[in-house]
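Quick start: what a row looks like.
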Amino acid sequence: MIGTAPIHWFEQLDSTSEELKRRARGGVLESVWVAARQQSAGRGRLGRHWVSPDGNLFVSVLCPLPEGVSAATRIPFAAGLAVRDACLSVLPETDFRLKWPNDIRVDGAKLAGILVESGQTGPTFWVIIGIGVNVQVTPTDSGQAATSLVDLGAQPGLSPNDVLLELRTALAKRLAQAENDFEAVLRDWTAHAEGLDCMVEAGPANARERGRFEGLSGDGGMILRLPDGQTRIIRAGDVNLIGDA
């Protein structure tokens, strides 16, 4: 079970997700958390470098999925809500927002990101959820506005492990919710979505669409209302918020 799975801490790794991939491909398939004080090759979505200074949380968890690949689509939304829940346990009055598909932001500044990857070893399908949370340090070279829990008002002594323990419990609850009632997960996610009812530009780099973000489809796709009144469902790519125009 994710909520009681062991946590293995390392002083440094290339990437917590890469460590779990190595284990999974070697046949070690039980649920486990791997965290590192620092990463030398941390990755975000689309292969982007994840800045990994000491003092922030870099963690990945392996989840065997007996249901197979069809169950994987619910994972990013459950994980996003779980990270938000964990951050709320530290700063309960903060308006943490979920940016589709997998960032947690405050007033447009990135606090956390999630990368979900999947694979199969023998008959076992698995996903690895990689999570980075800026706990003590706000990266200054990430190429975008950023913030940290401490900068938002958390106690300076807050440690990555403190946040991880909250996250482990929160993720177990959200994954159980997603398994039993994914519609409820999507409702909860939408209630805290960044840019809802605003104009956005979204999609893969070679097929960007501009429209009003109207909500999520049943599988978690971003529903856009285009200027001509048609709708598009975006299931991959990045999102840029344009505003209310």
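That is the whole record. The two ends are 46 Å apart (CA to CA). The mean pLDDT is 91.
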